[in-house]
Design goal:
Number of helices: 4
Distance between the termini: 34 Å
Helix content: 40-55%
Radius of gyration: 16 Å
Shape: flat
Strand order of the largest sheet: 1-2-3
Low-confidence stretches: 98-102
Number of strands: 3
Structural class: mainly alpha
Largest sheet: 3 strands, parallel
Order of helices and strands: HEHHEHE
Strand content: 5-15%
Length: 109
């Protein structure tokens, strides 16, 4: 239902990261959102898992009508991020050339 209510994008770039990485980044933030300030690691992990499930569902729902580029983001350095960004840009340019297939970036082969 939510996917039917939100404005439709031309393309969705969905970046997935390991839950452990998301939790580490959330715990290390110097300016956490108010609702996260009093949470312990287990609560932050539960929240991250719920959010990941929502984003997965949303990406599946959007994929029905729109291209979704999925970037699986491992704990990697700057070189990997630049290469992934280059692949996303190339895919966006290909989509702009009337290619409407979804793609996955960064998945292990």
């Amino acid at each position: 239902t939510f996917a039917d209510l939100v404005p439709r994008p031309d393309v969705v770039v969905y970046v997935r990261a390991p839950i452990a990485s998301v939790v580490e980044r959330a715990m290390a933030r110097p300016d956490p959102p108010r609702e996260m300030r009093s949470q312990d690691r287990a609560e932050v992990e539960r929240c991250a898992r719920r959010a990941a499930a929502v984003y997965e569902s949303l990406a599946r729902a959007l994929r029905i009508k729109h291209p979704v580029i999925t970037v699986d983001y491992p704990d990697a350095g700057t070189a990997w991020r630049r290469a992934a960004a280059d692949r996303v840009v190339a895919r966006l340019l290909a989509l702009g050339a009337a290619d409407t297939r979804a793609d996955a970036i960064g998945r292990a082969s």
